[in-house]
Amino acid sequence: MILPLTSLPDGGKTNFPDDDVMAGRAEAICADTDFRRRVGQAMASRFTDREPAEHLEQRIYDGFPNRADQSLMDQFHRTDWQGRRKIAEHLSDQRVREYARRLIYMEAPEILSDGARAEMDAWIRDRVLNEDTKVPWNTIPKTMRENDELLAKATDNEAALLTDVRRFLTEMADST
Question: Within a 10 A sphere around the Cβ of 101, how many other Cβ atoms?
Fold first, then answer.
């Protein structure tokens, strides 16, 4: 296994070489690009028997960003939103690029072009109003159905609260 020593439980480090030996091994791994490539392939092959995930959130472990993207990701987190927008355009990993785009939209939508903002508005609308019960996130229609089920069995006090929740969900759906 390859993992940080800090991940081991107390007492789990008793049979390990000293820090200098461990640092030497870490340097050897960092210097051996072929070894790192083979480990990456071995990790990726663990999931070759499954269909590619439909939703971005389910594809996060489908591989690792390359070194160039890792460097850009570090820069992304150290710069202002305008800089982040420019960096996001250069990310080669589509998953990471989309996460960056979503983050920018959520935190600084004003820096996006009108077209990009409209595209993200549509994405939010499609996501929260999605009628598909199989999507792996909660949607307004799913929540309304659950609310209606609870309302059918509710006491008077619960019914008042659930009616307020339903009104809120309806307003949210109408404004999305």
Answer: 20
CB 92 within 8 A of CB 100: no
Full-model pTM: 0.66
Spatial CA neighbour of 94 closest among 128, 60, 71: 60
Place of tokens 């990456």: 40
**CB neighbour list of residue 142: distance below 8 Å, 6 or more residues apart:** 133
Per-residue tokens: 104: 């920018």
Instruction: Please give the Cα distance from 88 to 100 (Å, whole number).
Output: 6
Burial readout 53-89 (b: 16 or more C-beta within 10 A, e: otherwise): eeeeeeeeeeeebeeebeebbeebeeeeeeebbebbe
Amino acid letter, residue 32: D
**pLDDT tens digits for 87-140?**
999 999 999 999 999 999 999 999 999 999 999 999 999 999 999 999 999 999
For the chain, list the strands marked E by DSSP: none
What sign results for the dihedral spanned by CA atoms 91, 97, 101, 103? negative
- Distance from chain centroid for Cα 99: 7
Tell me how far apart the alpha carbons of residues 79 and 71 are, in angstroms, rounded to a whole number: 13
Dist. CA 173–CA 75, nearest whole Å? 37
